[in-house]
């Protein structure tokens, strides 16, 4: 498609010179640009198709070079990027060195926060407005666009309560498309469903309220009658009364694809005093039929081809082995078949965690709490206390939102909750808001919690089986990656016991997590250089197998720890702490992992390479340490590392068929 108008939009100020017909054409060109990207790489798709007119209307009626705008959550930022001077860079989105798939203040002054987690927009925009007022810049308007999927997050209502109390001039736009990533759930979802079909209500007028307020009260009977009338009015205006009672003036619902109407309502509320909520309903996937029919599939679809007859055909990405997410979901399913006490909880990520079959076949034991991670963990704690065996299946980056509930309701009570932390490690194109690199650190701080990670595909089922039998909290972390297999005789999973994959006297690589195949490849390649390495699948970060690891530290020239998580307080730190407590020397220990900075977006394998966490990077670190500490090799142990260790010759490292 020829982007005749879009290619000439250098900033939102250029929108002002377009007439209505040109604006409609621009909306079509934006959707075509979105389709062009989604056909070539995974990208947030359906949500962006749904906010095109809303984005244009906002930039037409406000000046966000000065006014404040927060998108919640930020994956619906693509149209905004296209009209804020980033059209020509748009083909690079979600590629290493290119545009981020979320707001990024380093890209544009129009992006104020990196908003990759839902729910914080009302809080941050209230803070912006309060700060502007304190600095005497009271003319700066403040707008938060929040989706109905994010609305149930507890922080949203905390912020709305605060905003109403402060009586700040604030506009919250509720983008209601009847979806989060998956269909919305809960009582608030039912309330919004009713609001969508309620008569339009303009909270700015409140004619009936003013009338009732001025009617004189004569006696209790009249007072009761007036109270009944007020209740009846509230019932008629059901759609907005929740927000009215919270202290927001409610307007809506409004068609989010009628650009003229949207502009009219935005002009109406632009200079209103006090907090206002504008309820806008949109269609997720608007303008692309398959995405409208299946918005869950097209939230972040795999690359696809559109045929002339409108059929969508997936592109061949070359991936054949299943991802860890699928292996974990399948293992959970088998355990649920065998044990009626097992339940599964997720926080609006049923599709992402591949739990659809569990939801369908075990509806009474599957619970989607919406984007309410703290509630999900406390909910699971209550189940565990009652005698159920709950599995909390949440992305690592989102589980950290429930830090206090992990501490208070689970660890402190020592309840057998299993945490399956998907997307642990580098999540690739999603970037720093979604990289799950902090869970090793925050999980291992709590007493009672057992912290584990599978080294490869063969570890998944045994670790889940262990976790469901263990009478205490257990966390299992695994990456967003194809599950590889290290061929071996798999050692049984025992609490706090590592698995020796191969033995060598030149040094050791101790791996916590799914980088084990990379370490094995590194060790195999170094054999030709005369460097024979021990490779250990740690399996446990807490409790640590220091019987084995301590012996490696004492007897081998060097020890390298490898983890796909932050080095600050992670697995390698646990090894150093244990070595220090045992009085061992540590100058020959090296830690490989995520350095003390946020990692940008890019393909996972490229990021691993850049960080020295792929096979080549691990091998190079081994070479350097071998040269430095080779004099220690003569005193290296020649006896088996542990008499009961199941050491097998390691065959080829391959994807699990």
Q: Calculate Rg over CA atoms.
A: 28 Å
Could you tell me the strand content as a percent range? 15-25%
What would CATH call the architecture of the largest domain?
3-Layer(aba) Sandwich
Uncertain runs are 207-219, 232-237, 633-639, 644-657
Question: Numbering strands along the chain, what is their spatial order in the largest sheet?
Answer: 10-9-11-12-14-13-19
Q: Could you name the CATH class of the largest domain?
A: Alpha Beta
CATH level 3 topology of the largest domain: Rossmann fold
Head-to-tail CA distance between termini? 41 Å
Give the overall form: globular
How can the largest sheet be summarized? Answer: 7 strands, mixed
Q: What is the helix content?
A: 25-40%
Structure in a nutshell:
The protein has 3 domains: 6-199 and 237-293, Thiamin diphosphate (ThDP)-binding fold, Pyr/PP domains (Rossmann fold, 3-Layer(aba) Sandwich), CATH 3.40.50.970; 324-485, Rossmann fold (3-Layer(aba) Sandwich), CATH 3.40.50.970; 498-655, Rossmann fold, CATH 3.40.50.920. 37% of the residues lie in helices and 16% in strands.
How would you characterize the overall build of this protein?
- This protein is α/β, with parallel strands linked by helices and 657 residues long.
- The chain has three domains: 251 residues, 3-Layer(aba) Sandwich (Rossmann fold), CATH 3.40.50; 162 residues, Rossmann fold (3-Layer(aba) Sandwich); 158 residues, Rossmann fold (3-Layer(aba) Sandwich).
- The protein contains 24 helices and 22 strands.
- The strands form five sheets. The protein has a seven-stranded mixed β-sheet with strand order 10-9-11-12-14-13-19, with helices on both faces. It has a six-stranded mixed β-sheet with strand order 1-2-3-6-5-4, with helices on both faces. The chain has a five-stranded mixed β-sheet with strand order 16-18-17-20-21, with helices on both faces.
- Strand 7 and strand 8 form a beta hairpin.
- 37% of the residues lie in helices and 16% in strands.
């Amino acid at each position: 498609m020829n982007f005749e108008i879009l290619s000439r939009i250098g900033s939102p100020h250029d929108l002002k010179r377009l007439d209505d017909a040109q604006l409609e054409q621009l909306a079509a060109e934006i959707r075509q640009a979105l389709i062009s990207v989604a056909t070539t790489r995974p990208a947030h798709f359906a949500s962006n198709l749904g906010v095109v007119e809303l984005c244009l209307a906002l930039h037409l009626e406000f000046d966000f070079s000065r006014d404040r705008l927060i998108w919640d959550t930020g994956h619906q930022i693509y149209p905004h990027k296209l009209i804020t001077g980033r059209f020509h860079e748009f083909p690079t989105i979600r590629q290493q060195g290119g545009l981020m798939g979320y707001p990024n203040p380093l890209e544009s002054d129009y992006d104020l926060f990196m908003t990759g987690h839902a729910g914080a927009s009302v809080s941050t925009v209230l803070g912006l407005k309060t700060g502007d007022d304190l600095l005497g810049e009271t003319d700066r308007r403040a707008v938060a666009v929040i989706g109905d999927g994010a609305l149930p997050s507890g922080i949203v209502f905390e912020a709305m309560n605060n905003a109403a109390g402060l009586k700040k001039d604030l506009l919250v736009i509720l983008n209601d498309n009847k979806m989060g990533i998956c269909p919305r759930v809960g009582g608030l979802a039912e309330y919004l469903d009713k609001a969508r079909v309620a008569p339009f209500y303009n909270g700015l007028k409140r004619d009936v309220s003013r009338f009732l307020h001025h009617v004189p009260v004569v006696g209790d009977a009249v007072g009761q009658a007036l109270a009944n009338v007020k209740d009846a009015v509230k019932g008629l205006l059901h759609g907005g009364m929740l927000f009215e009672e919270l202290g927001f003036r409610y307007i809506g619902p409004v068609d989010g694809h009628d650009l003229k109407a949207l502009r009219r309502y935005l002009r109406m509320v632009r200079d209103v005093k006090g907090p206002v909520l504008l309820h806008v309903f949109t269609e997720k996937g608007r303008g692309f039929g398959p995405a409208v029919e299946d918005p869950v599939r097209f939230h972040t679809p795999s690359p696809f081809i559109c045929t002339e007859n409108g059929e969508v055909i997936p592109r061949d990405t070359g991936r054949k082995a299943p991802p860890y997410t699928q292996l974990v979901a399948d293992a959970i399913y088998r355990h649920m078949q065998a044990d009626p006490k097992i339940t599964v909880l997720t926080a609006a990520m049923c599709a992402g965690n591949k739990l659809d079959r569990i939801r369908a076949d075990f509806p009474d034991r599957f619970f989607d709490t919406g984007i309410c991670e703290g509630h999900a963990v406390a909910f699971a704690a209550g189940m565990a206390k009652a005698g159920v065996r709950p599995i909390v299946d949440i992305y690592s980056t989102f589980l950290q939102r429930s830090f206090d509930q992990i501490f208070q309701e689970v660890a402190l009570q020592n309840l057998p909750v299993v945490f399956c932390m998907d997307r642990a490690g580098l999540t690739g194109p999603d970037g720093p808001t979604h990289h799950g690199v902090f869970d090793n650190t925050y999980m291992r701080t709590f007493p009672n919690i057992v912290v584990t990670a599978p080294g490869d595909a063969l570890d998944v089922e045994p670790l889940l089986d262990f976790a469901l039998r263990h009478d205490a909290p257990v966390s299992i972390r695994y990456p967003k990656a194809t599950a590889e297999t290290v061929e071996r005789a798999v050692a049984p999973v025992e609490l706090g016991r590592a698995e020796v994959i191969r033995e060598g006297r030149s040094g050791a690589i101790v791996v916590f997590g799914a980088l084990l195949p990379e370490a094995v490849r590194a060790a195999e390649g170094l054999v030709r250089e005369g460097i024979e390495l021990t490779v250990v699948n740690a399996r446990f970060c807490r409790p640590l197998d220091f019987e084995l690891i301590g012996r490696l530290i004492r007897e081998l020239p060097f020890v390298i720890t490898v983890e796909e998580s932050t080095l600050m307080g992670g697995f390698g730190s646990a090894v150093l702490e244990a070595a220090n407590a045992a009085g061992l020397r540590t100058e020959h220990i090296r830690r490989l992992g995520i350095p003390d900075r946020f990692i940008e977006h890019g393909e996972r394998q490229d990021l691993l390479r850049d960080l020295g966490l792929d096979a080549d990077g691990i091998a190079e670190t081994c070479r350097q340490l071998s040269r430095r500490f080779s004099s220690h090799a003569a005193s290296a142990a020649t006896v088996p590392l542990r008499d009961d260790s199941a050491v097998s010759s390691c065959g080829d490292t391959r994807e699990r068929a």
